[in-house]
Write a structure and sequence with these properties.
mainly alpha, 434 Repressor (Amino-terminal Domain), two-stranded antiparallel ribbon
């Protein structure tokens, strides 16, 4: 499962949804989608814009949680 780190990075950098929309020229729908598990449906171009504003790499915007079988 892929989870988004964007919400936490935005909070850390004190960037609001409205500020992110202004800086990236993305819609509220795109920004909100990227902040949830629906990030996996985002275009790379969208994630590149968000990463640029947040000053990080695209790969920092999400994590992949793996369910490993118990040994």
């Amino acid at each position: 499962m892929i989870t988004s780190n964007i919400k936490y990075i935005m909070r850390e950098k004190e960037i609001t949804i409205h500020k992110m929309m202004e800086l990236t020229k993305l819609s509220d729908h795109s920004v909100l989608k990227a902040r949830t598990s629906r990030i996996k449906g985002c275009k790379l171009e969208t994630l590149e814009k968000i990463a640029g504003v947040l000053g990080c790499k695209v790969k920092d915007l999400f994590e992949e949680e793996t369910n490993r079988p118990a040994k």
